[in-house]
Amino acid sequence: MLLIRSICARSGITDKEALARAMQGVDYVFHLAALASVPRSVNDPLGNNEHNVTGTLNVLLTARDAGVKRVVYAGSSSAYGNIESEFKSEDMPPQPLSPYAVAKLAANNTAMYSPRSMGWKQSRCVISTCLAHVKTRCRLTLP
Asked: How far apart are CA 133 and CA 49, in angstroms?
């Protein structure tokens, strides 16, 4: 049985109690939350960091405490800057150009290395890369 729950925008991933309630009885978490606004990140870099970096860590720690089997984190292609290429991929060097991109890169690194210490397999997906796989009709598989 697939159980899908979402955290309401009014709570968000900075609300640890809302996260704990939402993760009760859940085996898999797809973390898609972000404050995805470059102008907002420039105007409020601390709020941007709180939501995108600390919020991601909240998701990971709450998932661990709830016994979640796996968290899939949605990274952002913004971490790779304005690379002139049809598609961006995770093997490109990061070149963040905004506080939002820096925060997403930090959250990405947190999501990438946390599973080792929490006993999970790593699952990460940069949305533009996933869409590139769909566009070219390649199969996308999560490890």
From this structure: 30
- Which helix (H) or strand (E) element contains residue 38? helix 38-43
Q: Cα separations (Å) of 56 from 51, 80, 85, 94, 113?
A: 7, 19, 28, 19, 12
Q: Is 100 a catalytic residue?
A: yes
Domain positions in the chain: 16-135
Residue 26 CA to its chain's centroid (Å)? 18
* Residue labelled with tokens 């999970």: 120
60-114 tens-digit pLDDT: 999 889 988 888 888 787 888 787 777 777 778 888 899 999 999 898 888 877 7
Candidates 73, 80, 100, 113; catalytic one: 100
CA distances from 40 to 49, 75, 98, 121 (A): 11, 18, 10, 33
Whole-prediction pTM: 0.77
Q: What's the CATH superfamily of 16-135?
A: NAD(P)-binding Rossmann-like Domain (3.40.50.720)
